[in-house]
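Entry: Polymerase nucleotidyl transferase domain-containing protein
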Amino acid sequence: MDTAAYQAFTTELTRRADADGRFRGLVALGSMAARDYAPDDFSDHDFFVVAWPGHAETLRQERGWLPRAEDVALAFRETAHGLKVVYRDGHLLEFAVFDLEELSFARVNRYRVLLDKGGVTERMDERARYTAAELQRTASDDAWLFGQWLTQVLVGVGRHARGEGLSGRSRLYDAVRLFCLLLARHVPAPAASLLDGLDPVRRVERVYPETGGELARALEGDTPGLARTLLRLAERELSHVPAYPRDGVAAVRARLEAMHR
């Protein structure tokens, strides 16, 4: 969906919500919110519907309020409040329907209120503050993160060597996520505001072009190569951090080389 079509869909969705007496509010999320970055040809529509009391479940069940409802190819309930919809052209909607009180279940970072017929902006601001405080409160310390990252690499290459390729690769994917979390925490970057506190691998290539590019290319290769890249990038980017496990990294590197000689 190109930019013009994307914006036209957003406009039509907002118009329909405004005209429907069941809607209390509409909140754009992620790229749809156009905060820090604009949607592009690959962006989905992510949003919250805020319903007046008694209407939330009806809106979850119905599809007629969506733009181009006749073109929906797939729709399913993902969670108690959330749904996913795929159109015949491949465009994806990810949305949740809440009443105002049910917004207490939501975690948000980037958002833009498109429609507010009572209390929506105030409640979204409250949820954003809560989410930021929760992420800060539950943030693991560096020693834990480094330990988890390094042992995921070790277990992943071991399972790969044993012949458990899928399981081994899955552990390396976890290691990539942990590495990106540590990178964002300890390596400043001019475009750091583009990073996503709820998903540490989002837009890493844009914020850290060299490191992100190397990691993306390694993900296209084999599991031992990805493990070597993670160890090398950690040495280059994160060895200045006091909790960096230098001896542990050396031990895992030696183990990796011994397994794949």
